[in-house]
Amino acid sequence: MLDTCSNCTITNCTVTDCYQGIYILGSSYCQIFNNSIKENFEYGVSILSAYEMAEFNTIYHNSFIDNNPTGLSQASDYGTSNSWYNLVLAQGNYWSDWNQISVYPIAGSANASDIYPLADPPV
């Protein structure tokens, strides 16, 4: 859990069989990349704003596999201006339930999406 952090990085981790995978609360300018996030009961990554705004976080090159099996998305975003892809690389994340037709929708009030979902797992 990242709680009111700034400029942090989570990379090269495996997050599996948790209730929530990576939980970001009121944290900003963090980068989450090159992680395997799989088989978590709820979201693989969940971004929430509370007493501090969760904004300008970047999530890319992660493998999201079978998280939130009863939901419509493997991640949620209730912050603002978070990116679910790397704009310079034009690459996002791998989603095991992606239909490979359009963008991958992220649940939550931010109306976010991964506009560059990957066809193959990066990790």
Task: Report on the architecture of this protein.
The protein has 123 residues and is mostly beta strands. It has one domain (1-123). It is 0% helix and 30% strand. A hairpin with a 7-residue loop joins strand 12 and strand 13 (113-114).
Mean pLDDT figure: 95
| Tally of individual helices | 0
Rg to the nearest angstrom? 13 Å
Element order: H for helix, E for strand: EEEEEEEEEEEEE
Write the layout of secondary structure elements.
Blueprint: E1 2-3, E2 9-11, E3 14-16, E4 22-25, E5 31-33, E6 36-38, E7 45-48, E8 58-60, E9 63-65, E10 75-77, E11 94-95, E12 104-105, E13 113-114
What features would you highlight for this structure?
123 residues, mainly beta, 13 strands
Q: Can you describe this structure in just a few lines?
A:
Helices cover 0% and strands 30% of the residues. By secondary structure, it is an all-beta fold. A 4-stranded parallel β-sheet has the order 1-4-7-10, with no helix packed on it. A 4-stranded parallel β-sheet has the order 3-6-9-11, with no helix packed on it.
